[in-house]
Write a structure and sequence with these properties.
363 residues, elongated, alpha/beta
Length: 363
């Protein structure tokens, strides 16, 4: 009879969401909810050959009170590696590796070995591919682990770990939250392979056991190798990288010396108003319409400044950006604004509409 420690040391470091397209059966929210219910505090998202869902995954993790480790699983031929980001240099290398993988027409096993030998800094590498592990082992064993998954090959992988003098790490290679989600995975694989459910090649399916097992389940699967579970915690503690939130990033355009982007934008708007309404707001007075236009322009420019969108609406990019102003959430949909008519002289008259804005944290 197995005896379990009160707190089982285990972190899921090998999870696939529905961003492993036509493979992962569950959404990021489903995964985070299930992890939270198991008492987890940390997990790694390792979708296949991409970081497509990483931003949304971090948001979902934060809402659930979890910490997410950025990662991905790369495959080439019969070789695979789960790559977890430790630090900024590792994130840069992971992005480069993914880009290089997609630039290859048919990457073979040797490509992944060569690529990882060039771009391994800042990454923790987990793999169950002997040739890859042996090649990387020659460069050093730091942050290199043998990936062990419960099943018929578990004992062989543990022996390989001892032979290569590499620490084992436990994983369940998760593709669905519960066993009940396995049929969804099968349907997705059938769609991806363009075959009927009864004709899906066996190698295209994850095993029935590839669900989000509890720490107790994983402990029961590795009764003779507790270090494989303990290493998951060690790796999680080493992966401190957090996806930065730089805010809006727009190209910067040159502006005349002594003027700010907002001042240049105001000048462009004043020119547009003069062309459309025949009113020069640079001069005082002008009547009721001029006062209305001044107030409207001030309001729009204030919102743009507060939202940090000055670069988007100024310079040459303004000609394109103004056409997309209806996508700007704070402007409440596709309302006509004074920044639009300077490029659309026959568009709706903003002076006849009411500018509705949404709260800063609105939908």
């Amino acid at each position: 009879m197995l005896r379990f420690p009160r707190e089982i040391p285990f972190v899921h470091l090998h999870l696939h969401s529905n961003y492993s397209f036509c493979r992962g059966a569950n959404s990021l929210e489903d995964l985070c909810t299930a992890l939270k219910a198991q008492g987890a505090s940390t997990f790694a998202l390792t979708d296949l050959d991409g970081l497509y869902g990483v931003v949304w995954a971090q948001q979902a993790a934060e809402l659930a009170g979890l910490r997410m480790i950025v990662g991905a699983e790369l495959r080439a031929g019969r070789t695979r590696a789960v790559l977890l980001v430790k630090e900024t240099a590792g994130y840069a290398n992971l992005c480069q590796l993914i880009s290089e993988k997609h630039a290859q027409e048919r990457p073979d096993d040797g490509w992944l070995v060569r690529a990882l030998r060039r771009r391994r800094e800042g990454l923790v590498v987990l793999s169950d591919s002997p040739a890859l592990l042996q090649a990387l082992r020659r460069d050093g064993a730091d942050d290199l682990y043998l990936l062990c998954i419960p099943g018929p090959h578990r004992r062989r992988l543990l022996r390989l770990a001892r032979q290569l003098h590499l620490p084992p790490v436990a994983s369940n290679d998760v593709y669905f939250v519960s066993p009940d989600d396995y049929p969804v995975h099968r349907v997705l694989r059938a769609i991806d392979n363009h075959v009927a459910l009864s004709r899906i090649p066996a190698e295209e399916l994850a095993p029935h056991s590839a669900w989000l097992k509890t720490p107790a389940d994983m402990w029961a699967a590795f009764p003779d190798a507790p270090e494989a579970l303990e290493n998951t915690v060690r790796i999680a503690e080493a992966c401190t990288f957090r996806l930065p939130r730089p805010g809006n990033i727009f190209p910067r355009f040159p502006v005349p010396e002594g003027k700010s982007e907002l001042q240049c934008l105001r000048e462009l708007c004043l020119d547009g108003i003069r062309r459309r309404y025949g009113i020069d707001l640079r001069r005082p007075g002008g009547g009721e319409l001029a006062q209305k236009l001044r107030a409207r322009l001030d309001k729009e420019l204030t919102i743009i400044s507060d939202e940090g969108l000055r670069q988007l609406f100024s310079g040459d990019v303004g000609h394109c950006a103004a056409r997309l102003a209806h996508l700007w959430p704070r402007l409440g949909g596709g309302q006509p604004g004074l920044l639009r008519p300077r490029h659309h002289p026959r568009g709706p008259d903003p002076a006849r509409s009411v500018l509705r804005t949404l709260p800063a944290h609105g939908p």
